[in-house]
Automatic annotation (TrEMBL):
The gene is LOC111108436. Residues 1-19 have a biased composition (Basic residues). This is Uncharacterized protein LOC111108436 isoform X2. Keywords: DNA recombination, DNA-binding. It comes from Crassostrea virginica. Residues 20-30 have a biased composition (Polar residues). GO terms for molecular function: DNA binding. GO terms for biological process: DNA integration; DNA recombination. Residues 1-42 are annotated as: Disordered. The keyword DNA-binding applies.
Length: 373
């Protein structure tokens, strides 16, 4: 074969190598799907069959940016989305909490006037009857205790410069428990405040952080480090006799000794709490036993009606009848009540009053009991 023909056929070889180089470059770095059909026209000059490396580099950079865009939101920031969702779920309950705690003497900062009008208009649409049932599930005293707990937590968050919003974290609750313990709160009181936080999360249908391991162990630590346990003892018959005898040494006024003895005997024989006999404040004067609710059936028995009690669930008054104790007249409640009503002849209002007519308060009786003990 003539040499000239061999040279003519060998001329296209460099172009083939460049095409193969293009194939190797594109196979090593895959291009986006949107560019597959147009890649030859974009990356090659048809006249010279040369790779446009600037466009190739730009395509690779765009592909890497697209991969980072699809992967980074899932891996980097899951928490803010969950937090915003949680706060949104809790917002509709603000109006419900306002209605639920309405009428209380204290103001709960969680449901105070700081909420916007748009927030208040977003309710969970509880009917009047269901809201009434929800209110009735918690006693007035428990509502006031819960509001007190929220107020303490709100002050703690303000001091620590942390947001006061649901849901509260386990660390915040543990630090709150530690702060209460440092202030001298008893373990039982701290547990009550934690229960209020738990109730609020359940009411807002949020996960309850107070049941976590670290919170429970922190509460357990308050019990272990408490200085002393509960030293209160139940009043037995022998202790009651000593108390009645001690009143002659601790109380000078005979009239005062009469109503104190009657209170002790009535509480002992009728299994009544001191708060059911005498009020802690004037607000509760109508909730203690009233004079018109005491009725002597005969010389041997007396009947009294208990209209308000901590454990009263159906709201129906409790009628109690006491019989005379002839074996030990010193401990007879009927005899004590007759002596008391002969000295204090008021016909209405709280049963136990001073000579001035003012109701006997809880703190006075508790102080006299402490002195007698």
């Amino acid at each position: 074969m003539p040499p000239s023909k061999r040279k003519a056929r060998a001329a296209p070889k460099p172009a083939k190598k460049r095409v193969n180089t293009t194939t190797r470059a594109t196979s090593q770095t895959p291009l986006p799907e949107a560019m597959d059909s147009s890649a030859p026209s974009q990356l090659l000059d048809n006249n010279n069959a040369v790779i446009d490396y600037d466009q190739l580099a730009a395509a690779i950079i765009r592909q890497q940016q697209q991969a980072a865009t699809f992967s980074s939101p899932v891996e980097a920031n899951p928490a803010p989305a969950a937090s915003g969702s949680t706060n949104g779920e809790c917002q509709p309950f603000i109006n419900t909490l306002q209605q639920f705690f309405s009428g209380s003497q204290e103001i709960c900062p969680m449901v105070g006037p700081t909420a916007s009008n748009s927030t208040r208009s977003s309710t969970i649409h509880l009917s009047q009857s269901s809201m009434q049932l929800l209110k009735a599930s918690v006693s007035t005293s428990t509502k006031q205790l819960y509001l007190r707990s929220y107020t303490l937590l709100h002050k703690f968050c303000a001091i620590q410069n942390v947001p006061f919003s649901l849901p509260f974290t386990e660390v915040l609750i543990c630090n709150f428990i530690g702060d209460l313990f440092q202030q001298g709160y008893s373990p039982s009181t701290i547990t009550s405040h934690v229960s209020a936080i738990s109730y609020l999360h359940k009411l807002c249908n949020l996960p309850d952080p107070t049941h976590s391991f670290i919170v429970r162990k922190t509460i357990k630590g308050t019990h272990n480090l408490a200085k002393s346990g509960d030293i209160r003892l139940p009043i037995t018959k022998s202790i009651l006799i000593k108390l009645l005898s001690a009143l002659h040494h601790t109380v000078q006024e005979a009239d005062t000794r009469v109503f104190l003895s009657t209170i002790f005997l009535l509480a002992f024989h009728a299994f009544m709490r001191l708060g059911e006999l005498v009020a802690r404040s004037s607000v509760y004067n109508t909730k203690v036993i009233q004079r018109q609710d005491l009725l002597f059936l005969d010389d041997n028995s007396v009947q009294h009606i208990l209209r308000h009690s901590k454990n009263m669930k159906d709201g129906q008054p409790i009628v109690l009848t006491l019989a005379a104790n002839y074996i030990n007249p010193q401990l007879c409640p009927i005899r004590a009540l007759k002596t008391f009503t002969s000295l204090y002849q008021h016909k209405s209002g709280p049963l136990f009053t001073f000579k001035s007519g003012h109701p006997v308060n809880h703190s006075f009786v508790a102080a006299q009991l402490k002195h007698a003990i």
